[in-house]
Design brief:
Strand order of the largest sheet of chain B: 2-1-3-4
Distance between the termini of chain A: 50 Å
Number of strands of chain B: 8
Number of helices of chain A: 12
Number of domains of chain B: 3
Strand content of chain A: under 5%
Shape of chain A: globular
Mean pLDDT of chain A: 95
Number of strands of chain A: 0
Largest sheet of chain A: none
Low-confidence stretches of chain B: 1-6, 443-448
Mean pLDDT of chain B: 94
Oligomer: heterodimer
Radius of gyration of chain B: 22 Å
């Protein structure tokens, strides 16, 4: 188990970061090249102000008409995303690792907070999964891959949570935690999870397409 | 929900196999960064469903959510790389013409701003390439090709109608003319062929307003049709030709701007989609485009036209924001302010402005003809309820398709309203200065 752990936190981690960042970079570069060639409409009407407004309104809680129309889902959706980013970035254990590897670290949240937020993320994930089953307009769009991705997204949180509480075999849990985290990072550039960066581009586009050209607020 | 299949242009299909190569070419040509990104990051969250009036009007049928519509059509076309059969294409036609008016409301309700209208329009182009298009649109396309306008009207008939209307109007307003092909005029006024063909009084009303406002204007003898049904039929090449004819005529006449009649999609075509369809790389029309809502608003705001306060409408009035004038044209405030100049009791619909719902007659629905009427009435339920909730007795709308659809909804849902255009009301309410008042009726001899 120790060797697995060492491998996963050593060479495999490097590969993961390279694929994650490189993959996103390549996808962005490819789309940029393609847009230059075929999406003139993107550049002809570009407007930073409208792009910014469009993005910010969708990042602020209930900042858009659409989110206000479904307040409960929006709350879950926002908390879920905040937790997804905040727990891995600000967990003190992760920051210790950063510090050990590079001598730099981010601000750390207390373990109690991280623990609580993890539970919230899992609850939100469960809600989103159930919503996919019970709301007909979501069910009709849902494929097995959506559940797979949701499960993979939650896996590092489940395993991290169990490992922190030392429930179950600790070492196995840690290996699974690192492994699931790496799988998730590797998948991001190649799946719909790429929206973590592409969101800013599509949102910006509709912002200036509807806003700068027509004055309509796309939020 | 009705399951009436979309009509098909005669003389195609079943005889030949599907032209997969052609489909692949169109898929490839449109496979840019936008469509690629939209199709790949849609998270299938379903948030778009609530924004669509088809979905709302059919008891939240999940098959009518915008995401489902583009996934079942263009999404699948990309996934199967164009290897599809006639059955699939007919199902697509049913969706892209029968269940979407490309009103673009959903793109404002999608977290990623996926522009479903563009995806639907691309699918229409693919279907058109296989000879599939609703019959009403197919007929219009033939007319455009032959005569340059959707009703197949000859230049001679058009010019005659203009002259006849100018003459008729002189009984009410002295000196009304409809100048044809006047070089260097400020505005080149373009219309929906429905006007010269079936409602020539629309031309007369415009002429009266422009005369009283002492405008420098002209009507072109060609390129006067500002509508663009090939755009809705999926014939992009012809759609480009239609706008190019209009632009080139404006350049030839040396006018300062093209003025668009009270039509929604004509404005969207002329100002936003047209330049791309016609191949202008910067996406801008060669002359400015002005919608009559904007111009009429300025006339009254600036006092070029005065409204008789005693004649202002007393009954409750509501304003229908045409998708392509408001959401896709940015003129919702001008429209509203204009109505408030004309009416004492203005009552807004909810939602309104850029978030208003399509009436259910857009995207080519009205010209698609009677075989779509039952579906059109069923999906217009949302609009009918919006109107009823205002308690208005008059619905004003600056769009021919909204006008026809709401007139039909009025009967279908017994709304008890009167549907009116802005021109009609302005003509009734405007103060006619003395110099435009006819001497006397009865055709008296002119004194020297």
């Amino acid at each position: 188990m120790q060797t697995w752990y060492a491998f996963l936190t050593g060479p495999a981690l490097w590969v993961t970061f390279v694929v994650f960042l490189g993959g996103l970079g390549v996808r962005l570069a490819f789309l940029y090249g393609l847009s230059r060639e075929r999406d003139r409409v993107f550049y002809n009407h570009m407007d930073w102000r409208w792009a910014f407004k469009s993005i910010v309104h969708w990042l602020l809680p209930w900042g858009s008409a659409s989110m206000r129309l479904q307040p409960v889902f929006s709350a879950v959706f926002i908390v879920f995303h905040v937790g997804l980013l905040a727990v891995p970035l600000f967990l003190s254990a992760h920051n210790l690792l950063w510090d050990r590897a590079f001598g730099v670290s981010l601000w750390s949240m207390s373990d109690a907070w991280a623990d609580g937020l993890t539970m919230v993320v899992l609850a939100c994930g469960l809600f989103l999964g159930i919503r996919r089953l019970v709301r007909p307009e979501v069910r009709i769009l849902t494929t097995a891959w959506d559940f797979t991705l949701l499960t993979l997204t939650l896996a590092p949180f489940v395993t991290g949570f169990l490992a922190y509480r030392q429930w179950g075999p600790y070492e196995v849990m840690m290996v699974l935690h690192v492994l699931s985290g790496e799988i998730l990072l590797v998948l991001i550039p190649f799946t719909k999870l790429g929206h973590m960066v592409l969101f800013f581009f599509t949102r910006a586009f509709i912002g200036f397409e509807m806003g700068a050209r027509r004055g309509a607020r796309a939020w | 929900m009705s399951h009436q299949a979309a009509a098909v242009e005669p003389g195609n299909v079943e005889v030949h196999p599907v032209d997969v190569k052609k489909i692949q070419q169109i898929l490839e040509a449109n496979n840019g960064a936008r469509i690629r990104t939209w199709l790949s990051i849609c998270s299938r969250c379903g948030l778009c469903a609530e924004s669509c009036f088809f979905y709302l009007a059919h008891n939240r049928n999940p098959r009518l959510s915008p995401a489902y519509k583009f996934k079942a059509t263009l999404g699948e076309l990309y996934q199967r790389r164009g290897h599809v059969d006639w059955d699939f294409l007919h199902r697509c036609a049913d969706i892209v013409w029968g269940e979407c008016t490309t009103c673009k409301r959903c793109s404002m309700y999608c977290p990623f701003g996926i522009d479903v209208a563009t995806l639907i329009a691309t699918t229409r182009t693919i279907l058109y390439s296989q000879g599939i298009t609703p019959q009403g649109l197919a007929r219009a396309v033939v007319n455009y090709r032959k005569t340059g306008n959707q009703m197949g009207m000859s230049t001679e008939d058009f010019v005659d109608t203009c002259e006849w209307m100018a003459e008729e109007s002189q009984d009410e307003i002295k000196g009304v003319t409809i100048p044809i092909d006047k070089k260097g005029a400020k505005y080149m006024y373009t219309v929906n062929p429905r006007e010269p063909m079936f409602y020539p009084q629309d031309l007369a009303m415009a002429a009266k307003i422009l005369t009283v406002a002492e405008e420098d204007w002209t009507m072109p003898s060609t390129g006067w049709d500002c509508t663009n049904l090939p755009m809705f039929a999926g014939d992009r090449a012809l759609a480009g030709q239609v706008v190019r004819t209009m632009y080139e005529k404006a350049v030839e006449l040396g006018v300062q701007a093209i003025l668009i009649t009270e039509c929604g999609h004509a404005y969207r075509s002329a100002l936003f989609e047209g330049p791309y369809l016609a191949g202008y790389p910067d996406g801008k029309p060669p002359v400015p485009i002005v919608h009559s809502v904007q111009l009429f608003y300025e006339y009254i705001r600036d006092g070029r036209l005065r409204i008789d306060p005693a004649k202002r409408l007393k009954e409750p009035v509501t304003y229908q924001d045409p998708c392509n004038v408001s959401r896709n044209g940015g003129l919702w405030e001008e429209g509203r302010k204009l109505v408030q100049f004309l009416a004492e009791d203005f009552r807004d619909m909810h939602p309104n402005r850029d978030h208003n719902h399509c009436c259910g007659g857009g995207g080519g629905y009205i010209p698609m003809g009677p075989e779509y009427k039952a579906r059109r009435m069923a999906s217009g339920r949302v609009k009918a309820e919006q109107i009823r909730a205002t308690g208005a007795k008059i619905v004003i709308t600056p769009c021919h398709n909204c006008f026809d659809q709401i007139s039909d909804l009025n009967k279908e849902y017994q709304l008890g309203v009167k549907v009116m255009s802005l021109k009609e009301i302005i003509c009734e309410l405007m103060v006619v200065p003395e110099k435009f008042q006819p001497e006397d009726n009865g055709g008296d001899e002119e004194q020297t």
